[in-house]
Amino acid sequence: MEMMEDVVIVGAGIAGLATAVALKRVGVRALVLERSEGLRATGTALTLTPNAWLALDALGVSHKLTPLYTPSIKGYVTNVSTGEVQEVLYPRQGIRTLHRKVLLEALAEELATDSIRFSSRLAAIQSLEQGGDASMAAVHLEDGTTIKSKVLIGCDGVHSLVARWLGLAELVHSGRSAVRGLAVFPQGHGFKQEFPIFMDENNRAGFVPLNDRQLYWFFVSQGENMEGEPEQMQRDVLEKCTEKFPSEYLDVVRHADLSSLSWAPLMFRSPWGIIFGKLSKGNVTVAGDAMHPMTPDLGNGGGASLEDAVVLGRHIGNSVMNNGGLIIPGDMAKAIDDYVKERRWRAAMVVTASYLSGRMHHGDRWWIKFLRDRALYKYFFGWLSRLVFVYDCGRLPAISFGEMDLSRKKD
């Protein structure tokens, strides 16, 4: 079977759904291909900082989420080896930690029911040259379906097939891994809306309330493989933490919802791989983790993906409006190139900041200890947070062309 679409997005994660919503806002329908049978919520929860909420404002979905989650204004970092406690103040808007699935559902609700095609596994990508600067892309699915599109956007995560097709550099292992999950207290957990973090030379752990009964928690270790059954992962974390980490954290881990536990090595794409890499080819590009996988140390992977969606929607929307509501392949290549130019340096900077923040949390060399204990939270973290969190990716263009509403035209 062969199909034709204006825009195909590979992956129905945060970047994929947000990009589809952004395009809908500018009058462009996109087909989202998702290999799973339904929306995936791997990772359980995520933290969104002020830059992410500005992107959600631009997408028109922030109002659905802000009433559900209370912002955290501050946190505490406790060195369990020395007992020293440092206070961390977040930007005045605070940060909100929310269920990943709730965010995905909020985005998916904005799309037509036939906009997401589940159980669609990508087998191959083909470039179809049209002459001059114009080009199209064809995606071949494992079920034999071929879908031709004027624009192809890879939002297919850390192990992106679209990024591989573009020739982007392979990922780098940070040397760390993380166990993450939810803790459930049916009668209420009683913790304040704060973000406590505990660390020693090789491990870092923490938790933050999602609501009165649920908390998101994590455990990051250096050089540890904790992959296995959920019960074993929980035991491994408790064994690593029993000697030094406080009882309140251990109690959170004991209340883990085992079905929510996940383990993953922390990978990233090198900043120079983003700066010098081929992030687009004609009408094909990438967004989200497919472009800039990063370590979670600043909690900005989701925020950067939302930024991508708005910027990509803005450039494609401007091209469509300049062409009377039509997608012109030659002009679309320029729009995608402009998107890449705008995002390349911002993405490389966020990846670098995340890596440096995480690197300073681990290690027993004297200079790492000095930076961690004397400079990280007192000076460096505040500078990093302003650099990363205080950022506005802009707004989407108006979608009218003359007297015609493009969104109605497309429907």
TrEMBL record:
Name by which UniProt lists this protein: FAD-binding domain-containing protein
Lineage of origin: Eukaryota, Viridiplantae, Streptophyta, Embryophyta, Tracheophyta
Family designation: Belongs to the 3-hydroxybenzoate 6-hydroxylase family.
Domain FAD-binding, chain residue ranges per copy: 6-352
Pfam families attached to this UniProt entry: FAD_binding_3
Domain of life: Eukaryota
Keyword tags: Monooxygenase, Oxidoreductase
UniProt GO MF annotations: FAD binding; monooxygenase activity
